[in-house]
Amino acid sequence: MKTKELRIGIIGYNFMGRAHSNGWLQAAKFFDLESLPVLQVACGRNGSALRAFADRWHWKHIETDWKKVVERDDVDVIDISLPQHLHAEVALAAAEAGKHIFCEKPMALSSGDAGQMLQAAEKAGIKHYVNHNYRRCPAVRLARRLIDEGKIGRIFHWRGAYQQDWIVDPEFPLTWHLRKETAGTGPHGDLNSHSVDLAHYLVGDVKSVSCLMSNFIKERPLPGEGAATFSAGKSTGPRRTGEVSVEDASLMLVEFANGAVGSFEATRFAPGRKNRNTFEIYGSEGSVAFDLERMNELQYFSRRDPEYAQGFRTILATESSHDYIANWWPPGHTIGYEHTFVHGMVDFINAIDGNRPIAPDFADGLKCIKVLEAGARSAETGQRVAVDSMPALERIAS
Ligand code: SOE
After folding, report:
1. What is the third-level CATH fold of 138-294+296-335?
2. Which of 133, 269, 275, when mutated, tests ligand 1's pocket best, judged by the most ligand atoms within 8 Å of its CB?
3. What are the pLDDT digits (tens) for 6-15?
4. Which of 70, 75, 91, 184 could make an SS bond with 109 (beta carbons 3.0 to 4.6 A apart)?
């Protein structure tokens, strides 16, 4: 029986609330941890939905006011599972109250907000983490290991594409994801943030960016006013629509500080591509390629193989020698999306217990936001933008 506890207060209970709850619950079941994560308080604005969520995931208490969660003496970690426009305000208060912070991505709406979050976290001396969970796929860790061992050699190319298809239907409503005030950008921030984080992890810092953004559907029904609801007579009066104020697709070309070049493509308009987060890295000694929809595999090509036997091989990253796997199942018993969250929680708890750094932290999150902002600036001006030239923007958190 563990005596040390790490008490979590989660703010938000939707998609990420569920993924995080599962992560906290599984962490100590599969990994040996010094501290046991305790699901202490869940917070959301809708009392009955929150109650149902808390009961299902065994959260001990509920609160409808996030400020009260941050102030509670029986909470050690604030888990921010909210849309990004709400991250900064909660994170600043959590840091002020001396709580460790586990924050969903993208870190914030602007580099101004992200910079303040970093400053506050450093001042408070807390552990801070941005949940770019794909860094914690064993196959992605393997890519990093091959790079570190020199098996890819000097990197020439990064090619990232993150493609989804969930808003191709013009009847898909104008949710918070499609409004600038709440999302900042569209797939650029939501999906490219993951790819930029992976590129930082695997290739290095991005120096300059050229970007093109496009918006295919400019007007959408307001939530609850889609054609199906409307024709079923569940809504009366004129059908209300609103303007989509974020891009639908973003294409970036970048130069890395180490001389490599890269491309990033992010879209929600790729029919058939459900959550296809892919990257390819090409270097002087070999190449690697990853596709999240086949997340247990890594493609690897080595120029050092005898020429007659060269070709891409598929490595199933489920051996106990692959990161995290020894704590799960025997070889070939694959893992899934939710495991990347468990790994994030495990590393975060270990960082707290061992007083060690964890990446990506708020400094990494800020670096990522700056690249995305340089991209947005480039798309606006038609110019290539140096990441370092981006001024910190004014804080715009509500
Ligand atoms: C968007 O559809 C989304 O849920 C992202 O917000 C997540 O970060 C990504 O991992 C899956 O897709």
Report:
1. Dihydrodipicolinate Reductase; domain 2 (3.30.360)
2. 275
3. 999 999 999 9
4. 184
